[in-house]
Amino acid sequence: MWRGGDVMKIRINPAVIHMDESIIRDMTRVAEEAGAINLAQGFPEYPIASEVRAAAEEAVRRDIRHYTRTWGAPRLRHRLARHLHERWGIGYDPEEEVVITCGASEAIMASMLTLLPPGATAVIPEPIYENYLPAVRLAGARPVILPVDPFTGTWDPSSLDDACRGAAVLVLNTPSNPAGKVWTREELEAVAKILERHDVLLITDETYAHITDPAHPHVAPASVAGLWRRTVTISSFSKTYAVTGWRVGYAAAPRPLMAAIRKVHDFMTVCAPAPFQRALVTALDLPESYSAEMAAPYRRRHDLLAAGLRRA
Fold first, then answer.
1. Domains and CATH numbers, the chain
2. Is 201 a residue whose pLDDT tops 80?
């Protein structure tokens, strides 16, 4: 066992040496120690739906405790594919174009490792969810930060066009964490033209798709003409169903991309937790009114905070 000496003699990946610990998790710790309101980390306070809790309990009682298929339990993959088609208008073959992962975080990491060759570049618009930069660097690639107007939340198309020259991937977070921006169909159509021109792939993080204002509905980028064939659609069940600790998310992509992503997923985690995969089939069967009821408290808090900031 190593017990001393120069730590730099240990052969640590430089990408890890220069990696900071999560500021989000660090601020959560500080908030807990101080008894403060935690605005740093996404912990939905609404309770888990009773039907979903009962389904998880039933899965444990039925001794569902072993590996599922590496790509995810078939029932969940098929139900998820139907949900993506019915809710967002994007179609995927659940047998070959969907993978269930350990949260969206794993889906992002697996996609980065798959689609970013060493030395490649990934374009990421500001403001940036903190997981993206370490994932790009661990893949041996280089992030290119795209500035966004802080007052409008929009980007300059010419800047995006310039940034995408020679890039391998564009990472798009919609609705945005932390800013909350929802990319419009018109903006995504402009993105599609740029990605087509430069032959750039798109990785989307749509974790907050169900938590939007009715006036600004989520648009799945893969539903925009020209984007489906070059897009990896990533999301999570964590925020939508208030189960952040269950660690179940997914990626969906055209067969050639998904076949490669599944290889990386297999050797990273094998599969997501089996009983929770079973329970989330029930979650996807909740009525559409669930999303509206879940989003309403966020709307009230938004209005309260916005009013306070305007008065400040």
1. 50-289 (3.40.640.10)
2. yes
